[in-house]
Amino acid sequence: MTEAPLLLRADDQGVVTLTLNRPQSRNGLSLGLLQVLREALAEIDADPDARVVVIAGAGPAFCAGHDLKELRAKNYDPSYVDELFAVCAEVMQAIVNLSKPVIARVHGVATAAGAQLVASADLAFASEDARFATPGVNIGLFCSTPMVALSRNVGKKHAMQMLLSGDLIDAPTAKNFGLVNEIVPPSELEATTLAFARKIAAKSPLTLAIGKKAFYRQAELPLADAYAFTREVMAENLKARDAREGIGAFLDKRQPVWTGT
């Protein structure tokens, strides 16, 4: 029998849904899954028809983090461990650096590197049954790499609460912490996420790419430098055809026609 693909891709009106497809391991991030996810993100970045990315999980969970069974089976081989964490870091950075917005669609558990995936995404929609944790401290392996994304998305004390306790938090708590945007009933999660993704996909792809890149860059800068940087970004953005088309359409009370230029 042919093995099921580790990652599924579905395209719908500019929205690309990538589904982690290792349900038997709660979509544990094996080295193989991380490698194909890295490849898929690179392909999407170069695909002009792809406007928004949704990352989801097959089966009962979104993602339970790194595959601990694989780690043990590899006897914690240093070369394997180095490659595993290097590829994982590349994937998380690829999500942030992708020229298209990325939405995490979360159900079940999102733990350890699974929570890192959620924190790395630009937006996150969660079902009412979703639970989140960075539980590495409970097994003697502190969630140091998930900490990078987590600490950049939630308050420091909230991040430390999750990292030091290892406890599961429910969806309302995750929303209060700033880890997710919206919570919906499980039966509505897919449709709600897709509807929002389509709304974003209808915008100018050039404008989305400019805005996403500038958002993360300015967040790293001191206030005065952030204003100087974004002033230059806006001036350059204004040279684009889509910016002038959008302004003209607004003033003329018509729908804009985006070209991505």
Characterise the protein shown here.
- May play a role in fatty acid biosynthesis and insulin sensitivity.
- This is Enoyl-CoA hydratase domain-containing protein 3, mitochondrial.
- Belongs to the enoyl-CoA hydratase/isomerase family.
- One of its GO terms (biological process) is fatty acid metabolic process.
- It holds the Pfam family ECH_1.
- The chain contains eleven helices and nine strands.
- It is about 50% helix and about 15% strand.
- The chain folds into two domains: about 200 residues, 2-enoyl-CoA Hydratase, Chain A, domain 1, CATH 3.90.226; about 50 residues, Lyase 2-enoyl-coa Hydratase, Chain  A, domain 2, CATH 1.10.12.
- The chain is globular and about 60 Å long.
- The strands form two sheets. The chain has a six-stranded mixed beta sheet with strand order 1-2-3-4-6-9, with helices on both faces. The chain has a three-stranded mixed beta sheet with strand order 5-7-8.
- It is an alpha/beta fold.
- The model has no long low-confidence stretch (mean pLDDT about 95).
- Helix 1 links the parallel strand 2 and strand 3.
